Amino acid sequence: MTKCIRCQVDVADNHLNCPLCGIKLRESIKDTHVSYPEYPQIAKRKKLLVKVWTFVTISIIVFSLAINALTWKVKPIGWSPILSIAVFYIWFLGQDLYQKFNINLVAKTLWNNYLILTVFFLIVDNVTGYGKWSLNFVIPFLGIATGFIMTLWSVKNKSMWRDDIGYILLILGVNVLPFILFLLKAVDVLWPSIASLLYGVMTVVGIFIFSGRRLLYELQKRFHF
User: Fold this and answer.
1) Which of 83, 101, 119 is the last residue of a domain?
2) Which helix (H) or strand (E) holds 3?
3) Do 7 and 82 sit in the same domain of this protein?
4) Same domain, 66 and 131
5) Same domain, 113 and 96
6) How far apart are CA 221 and CA 217, in angstroms?
7) Whole-angstrom Cα distance, residue 199 to residue 160?
8) Does the predicted TM-score (pTM) go above 0.70?
C-alpha cells in the first residue's frame, strides 16, 4: 500500500496515481532507470590474449626443440635451448607488464628477471663452447644492476621496509656469489667478482648507517629472532 500525502488515504500498489485527487504516487516502472555497472569486457579480452600468447610461446618452444633434435645429425648445434629461454623470457616479461602491473611487485619482477637472464646467459655460454664469460662478467654485473635498480625503486617509492627488504637482501647476497665462485676456481677473472662483492657490502653498510634500527626491527619481524 502507498499513502497519498494529500488525501491521507492508503492506495493499492497497482495504482500509480491517487484515485481521489490524481496526484502521482510513485514513478512508473518505465520511467524508473536502474543503472548496472558495465561488465568488464576488457579484462576478458586480456585473459584471452594472455592464453593465446602462452599457447604460441609453448608451441614455439616445442617445435624448436623437435626441429633441433631431428636435424642434430645434419647440424649439431644446440640452438633450441637458447631460443626457448629467449621466447620464455619475452613471454614472462610481456604477460607480467600486460596483464597486471602492480608497483608493489616490482622487486619480485626484478628478481625473477635476474634469475631468467642468469639461466639464459649460462645456456648461451655453454652452447657456444663455455668460455666462462657468463660467470666472469655477465652474472656479477647483472647482480649489481638488478640490486641498484631495486634499491633505487624502493627508496623512491618508500617501499623498502614495507615490501622489498627481503628481495633487496636476497639480491645483495647473490652479489657475494661470484667471489665465492672465484674461490672455488669456477671463475677466472677476479675484478668483476670483487666489484660485485664491494657493491653488496657497501649497500648493506649504507642501509645500516641510514636506517639501522629500522632494518633490525624489520629483520626481527620477518625472521623471528
Assistant:
1) 101
2) strand 2-3
3) no
4) no
5) no
6) 6
7) 18
8) no
